[in-house]
Amino acid sequence: MSEILRVAHLNKEYSGVQVLRDFSLTVNAGEVHALIGHNGAGKSTVVRLLSGSEQPTSGGFFVGGHPAVMSSPRIARDFGIYTVFQELRVIDQMTISQNIFLGGELNNKGFVLSREMDRQAHDLLKSYGLSHLDVRQKVRDLSHAEKQLIEIVSAMNGKPKLLILDEPTTALQISEVNTLLETVRKLADQGVAFIFITHKIAEAFSVCSHVTILRNGITVSSGPISQVSQKQVLQHVVGSTVIETDRRRELVSGEPGGQVVLTVQNLRSDVLNVSKMVVERGSVLGLYGLVGSGRTELLETIFGARKFSSGTMLLEGKEYRPHSPVDAVQAGVFLLSEDRKRTGIVPQMSAKTNMVLASLHDFQRWGFVRRGGVNMKVQEYVQKLTIQGNIEGPISHLSGGNQQKVLIARWLIPRGILLMLDEPTKGVDIGVKAQIHTIIRALADEGYAVLVVSSEVEEIAVVSDRVAVMANGMIRAVLCGAEIVERTLIEESLVGGQR
Amino acid sequence: MTRQLPSEFGITVVLLIIGLVLSLISPMFFTTSNVFTLLLNTVNIGLLGLGETFVLLTGGIDLSVGAVLALSGVLTAVLFNAHVGWVIASLGGITSGLLVGLFNGIVVRYTKVPPFIATFAAMGVASSIPLILTDANPIPIINNSFSFLGQGFVFGVVPFAVVIFVAVAIVAHIILSRTVFGTHVYAFGGNSESSRLSGINTTRVQILVYVVSGTLAGLSGVIEASRLASGYPTAGAGNSLFEAISAAVVGGVSLFGGIGSIPGAFVGALIIGTLSDGMNVLNVNSYWQPLVIGLVILIAVSVDTLRSTRQGRTPKWMALLQKSLRKDAGPESSGATRKDTAS
């Protein structure tokens, strides 16, 4: 069988943190490789490297046996390697055929041959069993699954040798998943190779010929799928690492069961269906689940940043119905958002101003900001949270960990009752991570009710008094005390995802 | 770390260089009377530019300011001729600007129509009303007290309008740099989503910046009416809108929001004012004048765009300036700007 792509000893570091170690893989024509791993295992990194979006710190690529440099997605495409990312690249406002030919428009001396493109697009769709779609339809009107198929068809139009599908089934219904897997099988028979990134084990077994399992950036197993069982794969995914129970015991000392601060009942929205959730004063409720399980959406709903259709929320016994974040902040409900860059920092402003952004009204007299008051408060939190760097300079000049601490301080300065932290240690280095965990525990001890969302099992296990596991917008299980072990968490979240 | 120069430093140097060159070429330029004439001619662009700065800082744009200038002047004249007294008439003119601004803000906020279109529509409306009211004829205002606004002098040499302009600039600077509202303006322009999630009342911020812009345009309409001793329905119809936006942008206010300052916009207005005045003093053919101003604006906007695409880096031209001004710090600063290109 002809070798299409071989990668040897890839390593990748982000600002000193190694996220992928010694990754090697050989893909032959017609093979379907599954790349399995849990949140943060390094799957997305592999996709970014293979698609040419990012360069490895070290290691090499061989295309058809010859050394190659994947310096950009365009060059990867020239090698016949196409990638369909989890976040789709189709342009909503354009038609199906325009999307299929995007970047490779058929033309005659610069004039686009729309009819010819429509005709060819129609034939293409037909050959993939999608003839019910009108090629002149705007992509906007398609379902997510259809958009994904369009993107695959578009990639197929470039005659790829290898197609990388990044978590292609996360947003799909069961019937749609089957259509997709069927398409993959058919194309593989025609000699196209696939790398199929997923965290769903059953899916991998239904379509793949080879399987590679990543955990914490390390390849723990790789080989033909016939040589392993589903159970073994699960074991590899989960790993044998036990949560450092010592650290947990050291952090979680107080006994849970304080006064109820927030009660959520029968909360329903387009993506949520939460029958009951309770957060107590002085304790940390962890919210664990895969990406897309509705964790972030739940926090945003409680914060008034997202609408809900029915259900009730009680805050300290009183009805709580936030229409906007302004309402939530006034009620003492704060959210540290997940995406620090997009929804957290104001990059041009100083770290100092960023820190007091949510509490400026506490420092004003007749509309004027009392600088002395601000400086004192900021100094207090710089010391309390050991923030390093120039706080007078733009926050974008600080390291990720210090930016995160500034944003945490943003919500500590105004006095609140419920603090929600979405991925509080995303993109911060290990040392700061431990500090943030200690801060979270200290906040609970001070009397805050804390809600923490995290994709990292260890993190959830270390900081939480109780853990709610979410999948498909529902809370699948609530674990407390000794039940909080890595394995249970992962299994619960996967079971939900499998449905 | 070397001490950072304020970001207005660069353009202030540019202004000084332009001034220096002009005074070397023409002995007429750097005289007390010409400098104050220059300042007086800058008042309108300056006031519009200050208001525009608030809007630009939020990432919006207000195209209606030139039309509001005419509307406000004509309304003042109409009210004055209806015998309501010049103070009330002037306040009426300013209020008309405030209302147009409020309208702009509400439309932009609640309909999500892009500010460019919303304020362009408002510009059409606001520029038609004075023409309809007056049949395109100027309406005279004869009143000594009123004419002091635009024609009077303090201490015999300083035009009163310039005093108003400087006072407004100082107040605007204090509002933007010292108040909660001002901080929220920068935050909204810098990252509207972060601001919303910080519990900032972004609706109020977004509407108020248009109100400020409209009000200042109204004020400048009243001053213009006083200077011309009449309400001109076509006042502000020419280049004043674009010169006002340019003043702000030349002064370092980013079209993308979040970056810029009142002192910057103030100096920017002076640069535009100095260029036009200087060219008049030098008797530059009037056909050439817009060309020169256009080029200056183009350069300034390019610098702004380059700066925001490579965020956090000192623009090369500014690094060069800093270097040439403080020779000892030379090699280090040029090394810092290169860093990104190398990797």
Automatic annotation (TrEMBL), chain A:
Keywords: ATP-binding, Nucleotide-binding, Repeat, Transport. InterPro entries: AAA+_ATPase, ABC_carbohydrate_import_ATPase, ABC_transporter-like_ATP-bd, ABC_transporter-like_CS, P-loop_NTPase. It holds the Pfam family ABC_tran. The keyword Lyase does not apply. One of its GO terms (molecular function) is ATP binding. It comes from the Bacteria. Residues 5-241, 246-497 form the ABC transporter domain. PANTHER family: CARBOHYDRATE TRANSPORT ATP-BINDING PROTEIN MG119-RELATED, GALACTOFURANOSE TRANSPORTER ATP-BINDING PROTEIN YTFR. This is Sugar ABC transporter ATP-binding protein. The lineage of its organism: Bacteria, Bacillati, Bacillota, Clostridia, Eubacteriales.
Automatic annotation (TrEMBL), chain B:
PANTHER family: ABC TRANSPORTER PERMEASE PROTEIN YPHD-RELATED-RELATED. InterPro entries: ABC_transp_permease. GO terms for molecular function: transmembrane transporter activity. Keywords: Cell membrane, Membrane, Transmembrane, Transmembrane helix. It is a multi-pass membrane protein. Pfam families: BPD_transp_2. GO terms for cellular component: plasma membrane. This is ABC transporter permease. The chain crosses the membrane at residues 9-30, 36-56, 63-80, 86-108, 115-133, 153-176, 248-275, 287-306. It is found in: Cell membrane. The keyword Methyltransferase does not apply. It comes from Sulfobacillus acidophilus.
